[in-house]
Amino acid sequence: MLKVWGRNNSSNVQKVMWGIAEMGVPHERIDAGRQFGVVNEPTYRAKNPNGMVPTIEDEGVVLWESNAILRHLARKHGKLMPAALADQARVDMWMDWQQTVLGQGVGPVFIGMIRTPAEQRDMAAIEKAKQAAIAAVGILDAELEKHMFVVGNTFTVADIPIGIMMFRYKTLIPEAPARANVDRWYAAMQARPAFRQHVTDIPLT
Hints:
The chain is α+β, with helices and mostly antiparallel strands. The chain contains eight helices and four strands, in the order E-H-E-H-E-E-H-H-H-H-H-H. The protein has helices at residues 11-23, 42-47, 66-77, 85-115, 123-144, 159-172, 180-190, 193-200, and strands at 2-5, 27-30, 55-58, 61-64. The chain has a four-stranded mixed beta sheet, covered by helices on one side. Strand 1 (2-5), helix 1 and strand 2 form a beta-alpha-beta unit. It is globular and about 45 Å long.
């Protein structure tokens, strides 16, 4: 059975769990990271030398990096991955964009507003990160004007990491301007039971 190490309130673990739920993959999740420890134990470090979550073990295949795990599971189970190679490349592109662009704005806002005590917050840095996130969402909005989901008109693994970030964006930057295409797409994410179970029903901590 697929094993997943990681706590359920980690955004990167949530990506994997949401994907697993959408694909219907039997699995076992083991709490790890932050208050649960585990990640510094030698047996865990042998699997993931970064000491981070998530890590999976799937029939002898050990992987870390949440987006890579999602792509592996999608290809293995033949679900949530487009058939056309060009569309698979677009899936890779947008999943990378989540980490290199969208996450670089949303991430510092999350750390600043959720993980940092109010008296220690650098509000100028948080505001700069907010503006970076808002600009990134403008790019996403332009893409979603062309089709229903991030890559074409079918839900794919590309929607998952971006959906995770957009929950944080919507929660932490309520003053962000409305984006008609993003808002339509995000409503479709909210309608998915797996998104609610593994993302929006879990408090940000």
